[in-house]
Amino acid sequence: MLYKQKLLEAFILGIAMYFLGLISLIPVVGWYLYAKLFPKIVVWYYNKLNIKVDPKYDVAFKSIIIPLSIAMTGVLIMIVGLYFFVINSIEFIEISIIVGIILGIVGFILYILLFYTLFGSIIGKVDKFKIYAKKSTYLLLISLIPTFIIFIFFYIIDLFIPLTDPILRLILEILEILLAIFYQPYLFVLYAVAIQNMQ
Prior knowledge:
Layout: H1 2-5, H2 7-23, H3 29-48, H4 57-83, H5 90-113, H6 115-123, H7 133-160, H8 166-196
Helix pairs in contact: 2-3, 2-8, 3-4, 3-6, 4-5, 4-6, 6-8
């Protein structure tokens, strides 16, 4: 109900998160800005929804910057490896891809394990940088349900709507953009409710 009453704020949050995601692609500086701004934007949104928060920004920052830096370093290593493809250094390419993939996987797994730490520190339930594997997994699982529903929805559309029609294609693209904008705010509310009800 709170989410429905704050569509403008949800729209602003969705747009802000989109641009913040683009900023995170900038090596080092972008990662730092993302880790600093993400919790503050979420806190702003929660305040607009009158969700009680007591943010621990230092914990939230660590929960983002560590896995993000590891994963994005892996991506950079793979990009550098592909650059060496031009000069036919096959061995370096193979090593860089393997190392890059490993770092990417480690960063992604760490991000999942720190999921509760991140949003728990934003809400105010977590004040130490610590991994809560079970609670983080629970948050991830509840977010997969709406994701699965949206996936099925678009899959059905692909099956039954002729996308060769330019008008239908435009409508579908607009719908996808709106879902992308409003989906994250919905998840953030879902996380807040789940965390507040966790023991």
